[in-house]
Specification:
By secondary structure, this protein is α/β, with parallel strands linked by helices. The chain contains twelve helices and twelve strands. The protein folds into two domains: 123 residues, NAD(P)-binding Rossmann-like Domain (Rossmann fold); 186 residues, Rossmann fold, CATH 3.40.50.720. The strands form two sheets. Strands 8-7-6-9-10-11-12 form a seven-stranded parallel sheet, sandwiched between helices. Strands 2-1-3-4-5 form a five-stranded parallel sheet. The radius of gyration is 22 Å and the shape is globular. Keywords: NAD, Oxidoreductase.
């Protein structure tokens, strides 16, 4: 009988598990153990003798995996797998399965929502009302913050996977011109791509939709920010490490860039002294959402269906 341990069920909304017929267990005979959250020092004890681990963000290092000889499969309830030492898993004969594409629609729509928020200064208008700014006006309206057209502006997309392509489709429907960035440091561009630096110079809005790896770490930094228009906006719904947070915070404070909207930070949850959190508390040109772009009801449903399918398929293929 398979022993399955869900290390961080609390990383997903409880509603997906409570809704009738929305969550099923694997078809094979199994023992199911679940925890809301698991800290790094609890992984080995909780997952000992487990054949399958289900996890969303729990860190699984080489040392941890080496101490789990029964482990055969890691089922990641996400697309990104940067919390798992994939090289160690491969060497140890542990399969790793993720769920690509489950949140394409939700994340893409979140990007578009952020474009509207930034272009129409929605955060600034909202902050005004907390101090009765409108109520104190002598006429029906006032004009403190810019409202800019989305149609006709240029969207630069970094990362042309499923989400990047869907963002492009939605943006084009709004009348935006879309350009795709070639990977940084690549001299010869693929068809349909422009050099990375040129995209930064041309774009009115820059959307980061690429994975985090050694080549994309701090893709947006003090140097690359100088290439951007002072009227440009940066949107990140991918991974926090794509941005040098101190460099972006300084650029926002000095208005060397018009604004940013972020659904992810380098450390999550962030430290209270995170430089971007400090900017968000004092300036309306930064919108931060707590890594929730992927959490639409349909995305969560698909995520758990595919996760259980991954386990069922592995069992069928390997005869457990």
């Amino acid at each position: 009988m398979l022993k399955i341990t869900f290390l961080d069920k609390g990383a997903l909304p409880e509603t997906i598990f409570l809704k009738k017929n929305s969550f099923r267990r694997p078809q094979c005979r199994h023992e199911w153990i679940e925890y809301s959250h698991t800290s790094p020092d609890q992984v080995i004890e909780r997952a000992k003798d487990s054949h399958v681990i289900i996890t969303n963000k729990t860190l699984l290092t080489r040392d941890m995996l080496s101490a789990l000889p029964a482990l055969k499969l890691i089922a990641v309830t996400a697309t990104g797998m940067d919390n798992v030492d994939l090289e160690a898993a491969r060497e140890l004969g542990i399969a790793v399965r993720n769920v690509p594409g489950y949140s394409t629609q939700a994340v893409s729509e979140h990007v578009i929502a952020m474009i509207f928020a930034l272009k129409h200064s929605l955060m600034a208008w909202y902050h005004d009302q907390l101090s009765d700014r409108w109520a104190s006006q002598p006429q029906f309206t006032y004009f403190d913050h810019p409202v800019k057209d989305i149609a006709g502006s240029t969207l630069g997309i970094i990362g042309a996977g499923a989400i990047g392509r869907e963002v492009a489709r939605l943006a084009q429907a709004l009348g935006m011109k879309v350009i795709f960035a070639e990977r940084r440091g690549i001299a010869l561009c693929r068809s349909g791509y422009l050099p990375f630096e040129e995209v930064l110079r041309l774009a009115d809005v820059i959307s980061l939709n690429c994975p985090l790896n050694t080549h994309t770490q701090h893709l947006i930094n003090a140097d690359t920010l100088t290439l951007c228009k002072p009227t440009a906006f940066i949107i990140n719904t991918a991974r926090g490490g794509l941005i040098d947070e101190r460099a972006l915070a300084e650029a926002l404070r000095q208005r060397r860039i018009a604004g940013a909207a972020l659904d992810c930070l380098t450390q999550e949850p962030p430290e209270k002294d995170n430089p971007l959190m400090a900017v968000a508390k004092t300036q309306p040109n930064l919108l931060i959402t707590p890594h929730i772009a992927w959490t639409s009801a349909s995305s969560l449903q698909l995520l758990m269906e595919k996760t259980i399918e991954n386990i069922d398929e592995y069992v069928q293929q390997n005869g457990y």
